[in-house]
Structures are given as structure tokens and as C-alpha cells.
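Continued from yesterday's entry.
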Amino acid sequence: MPFAFIDHTVRTAARMSRRAWLIALVLAIWGAGAARADALTVFAAASLRNALEEIAAEYAQETGAELRASYAATSALARQIQYGAPADIFISANADWMDHLEASGLIESDTRIDILGNRLVLISRDRDAERIEITPDTDIVEMLAGGRLAMALIDAVPAGIYGREALSALGLWEAAVPFVAQTDNVRAALALVALGEAPLGIVYASDAAAEPRVRVIGEFPGATHAPIVYSAAMTHRSNNAAGAEYLNFLRGPQAREVFTRWGFDVMAQ
């Protein structure tokens, strides 16, 4: 069960020393896929899970190739690549992290492609909540009614960074920050709202599309935050010939249809 082994390693990485984590990750990947040394290992932003798992199934059926995937916050995955994690492909939800790895010589620059865009939305579990226009006059605190605003880590995780940027641009951040509940990644913020632990959350439109227990009640104007761009590239350490083929597949019609259905904005190729 390669997905389970690798995902468990990612979830526990924050609680382990760097050295211990690297040993655990290498052993997990070796143990999960030793029988197929040529399997392609993909590190991808957590918000891509649903779409990429569907695409992976289609890719495997069409090519016979084996994929292993690890989903987490872009920042966590980028740091793992810095520390030597054996990823072949990195798919980032934030251009800055991809830029950082490229500047460090850790990705193959000529393979880097921008594949997707996304939108930032405000979600609620209340099925009767009215749709609103998010403006400087929006009273987030009143809407929370004493509850928490679920967001990914505001200083490290792309969705949290975009969310803080948008609230700041609207002049809403100072009032909202005492009520923010930060999570390790955007899918964890989504879960807080879906489970009723937080009345509101800030996530990507694609996350909201993946969770039937929440509804979008507002979309942040694009001008309030930096463009949300997902980039993909092969890592410098990868010698897997399937990497280029997989990147091409991500730009093909099958993948484009899946991405669109899961709420992403597919970028022109």
C-alpha cells in the first residue's frame, strides 16, 4: 500500500528530527515499492489530491506505469526535497516555493510548467448560509459568532498566505486574526469546517468542490491576493524517464477534463 506508507511518513514528519524523518521516508518508500524501482514518485500540494488520484488511475491504465504520491502542504514538501527526499516530480501550489527550489538547483528548470490556477473562497457548513460579496465592509467577526476561522498556516502554507493577503488587502485581517485556527494544510482547514469544528474557512475553490458537506458563500476578489498558480517540474535528482511523459500527460486532454471537473482553472498550453 504505497500511498498509505508515504502519507503516514509525511504526516509524522513535523514531529521527528530531520535525520530521523529522512531515514523513515527512505525506508517507507523502499518498503512500499521495492518491487518496482522505476515507479514514479510525485510530491504534490494537498489541494490536488482528488484530481491527481483520478489522473493517476487513468495514467496507469494507459501506460502501465506505477505512481507513488505524497500529498502535503507545498512548504512541507519543498523542505523535504531540500533535505533529500527522493521525489521525481514536484507540483507546487505556490510559485515562490518552486522558485526557491529552482534557485537552489533542486529542480530541472527546463521541465518546469505552469499547469493550473485556482480561486480563494470562503466556506461554511451551514447549507442555509447566504451567498455574499466579500468587500471591506464584510464583518467576518460577526459571521463567526464566536467561532473560529479555519485557515492553513498563514506564514508557510500557500492557501494560508493567500488568505491572509486577501484579508489584509480588504482591511479585515486585524479584526479576524484573533479568531483564526491554523492548520498544517488547506485540506485540514477544509475538514474543520466540514466537521463543524469551525463555522467558516478559507480554502481553494477546488477544495470546496471536493467536500459535499461545505458550501461556498463568497469568493475573494482576485486582485486581493497574488495569482494562485500551480507549477510542476522534475527534480534534479530524478533519473526516471517516465517523468517527462507524466508531465506531458498532465497537460493532455484527459487530465485537463479532470482538473476542470474538480474546480481548477486549467492554464492555456
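--- second protein ---
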Amino acid sequence: MKKPHNEDMLRYSPFHSRVKAMCQTNDWYMWAGYTTPNSYEDIELEYFAARNSTGVFDLTPMTKYLITGPDSEAFMNRLMTRDVRKIKPGRVGYTVWCDDAGMVHDDGTIFHFSEGVYRLCAQERCMDWLQCSAMGFDVNIVDETEDVAGLAVQGPTSCATLRKMGLEGLQDLKPFGITTFPFNGAELTVSRTGYTGDLGYELWIAPEQAETLWDALFEAGKDYMIRPMGSEALGLARIEAGFIMAWEDFVPAEQMVRHGRARSPFELGLGWLVDFNKGHFTGRKALLKEQEQGSRFRFVKLDVDGNKPAEHSFILNKAGDVVGHVTSAAWCPTAKSNIALASLEMPWGDESDELFAEIYYTRELHWTRLLAPCKVMTGPVYEPARRRMTPAPNY
């Protein structure tokens, strides 16, 4: 297997030999020090694989921390805004964690493998924060990012593909569930999770098994039009699903330079992840105060008129005043909607508000300014029934 680093200390995923061979665009970027593809062949084809067949995304660079010890549950509950005790063994839970001012450090997922054994998956590296927060707790925290290879297998035929690979019984795994299968003399962990808003799974395995897993997966999925997908296609899918992303939709509090640029869970539309009934947690006092006095911002999904994506646009009211800005935007093919995620100043963001996106776009070096009417959406943008069906459909 190729060494995980090259001479310039850029990290390579254990899947890199397969990824590189399939990356026709030669379009790369750095994710947490790893060399990963923006695209493989065509962004739209990769996106439609996750919507119409099976798309595969290498998520090995995702930061992964193994947290164990007698106080692991108490530590996690002290750190997170949600009640971690409700995430039972064999389950995964979405969560956020804050600083003392109630500003979000990051969002991620908690994998509860067994009693006292957790994995925290996040975009940002936060070992210093975890260790500082662990003072007084009998816990052990290990950065296992390089010790666990991961693939996201997403789309309507994802379950059928994995069953053909030999994972029979996978169809009975419930959303946010975890299970294991024997694979090539090793253990393959599978969670019914993903970042596309569709039926999908995430596969976790030892790095030395990565290439074998990739080959077996693509052999099993060849009749299901399986296709690798890069970050651009994944980004399109997650915007369509209404999912947020660090550095796109919020600034992690620990990385904030300018005062006031971070956001609280309430200001990101994640108030449902804040449980004041569980006792003390980091940021609780500040969040209680915010609940009492009101938030500064409201995070909304907008249906933007026309087909010009409102990336980096200001949001204006009917008087022409700037009342917010777009954080992520895309024309989403499956939803057939021009969607924007936006942070608006309070009290803006009610369904009745008349809002406009100030969009600038260029064609043949000619710039055009467009004021596109926007409607606030309260429901999910894209949420197919198959995402939550159990047993999962065998397309």
C-alpha cells in the first residue's frame, strides 16, 4: 500500500491509488492535509449518481476521535449541547459543541459503539479543545483519523450495491444505526449515515483493507452505474438537502478572528440540538441568556427566483436595505429549485417577508446585476421517503 505521506508531507488517503486512477479532471484540493478530488469526470454526472444510482465519496480525511474511559459519557454530555445519554450503543447522533459564549465550535456526528466507547467525527481538528475540556474526567482521547479509512456510499441503489458485495441483512439497518460485517478477514463497520440527504451508508475499515474494499464495492456496483464523486458534487447534494458546513455557513468559534462572526446553535437553525434539561454543558449559561433575550441572526433556506445561483449575495428587503447574506447557494437539479442558505439579521426571515437576492453574474466578461425575489422555506428542500425507509429499498 502507498505510504500515507509524500515528500512534501501531503497526506494520501488509503484509497488514493484508486481515486487518482479515476480522477480524469486532475482537479484536486487539500482537505485537512489530505489530497482529495474536487471532481473526477463531470460534476453533474457525479451528483446524479448520488440521486439516481450510487455515488462514492472518500471521507477518510474527516477528523475522527476515539473517546473511551469510565467518564466518557459524562465527558461527552458535558461537551455537547444535546443529551448524549439518549444516543444508545449501536447508534449515531448529529451534534454541535460550543465555547463558553455559546458559539458553535463545529458540528459532527457521535458514534456510540458500545458502553463507554465513542467516536466523534468532525471537519475541524479540535484535539486541544477536547483535552482541555476533559480536565477532571477519566477519559482517553485518541486521534484515529489516519487509522480508519472511510467511504460514503450514497444513493437509491446504495443498499442494493452493498448487498451484492455480500452485506446481506444491511437493508434492516435503521437510519443512524451501526452494524459490522466480516470483510476479507477484517471487520467492516457500516453506519446508515451520510451528507447527501438520500438513502446512504458510510463504510469504515482499517487502511490496509482500503483498496480491497474499493475494488469489491465498484465490482458489485458496476451494474448499478456506481460512480465516484468529488467535493463539488457532494456540496451540491448537501445544499439541496439543507445541510450546513463549517467555513461555508458558519465560522468555527475557535478559528474566529473578528468579534461577532461566529454563530450560536439557535442562529444556525439548530436549536433542536440544545437540551437545557440535561444539566450543565459548555455554553449553557450563554445559550439560556440568548433564549431569553433573543438571537442576533436567523438561518433560513431561500427559494430564489430564476436559475442564477445566489452565491455570496446580499439579501435585501423591499426598501433596499441589506438584512443578511447568502452562505451557500446552488441550482439543485433534483429539487428543481434555486436554493440559498442565508444568515439574516433578526427579525427578518419570516415566511411573509419580501426579500431579494442581489446576484451578480458574468457571461463573456459582461457583468449583470439581478435582484431576484426570494421566499423563505420552512420545510425540507429535498427529503425522499427512501432516506428513512426500513427495510431499505432494493432498487
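Helices lie at 16-22, 43-52, 72-79, 127-133, 158-164, 210-220, 231-241, 284-293. The first strand starts at residue 27 and ends at 31. Will compare against the first tomorrow.
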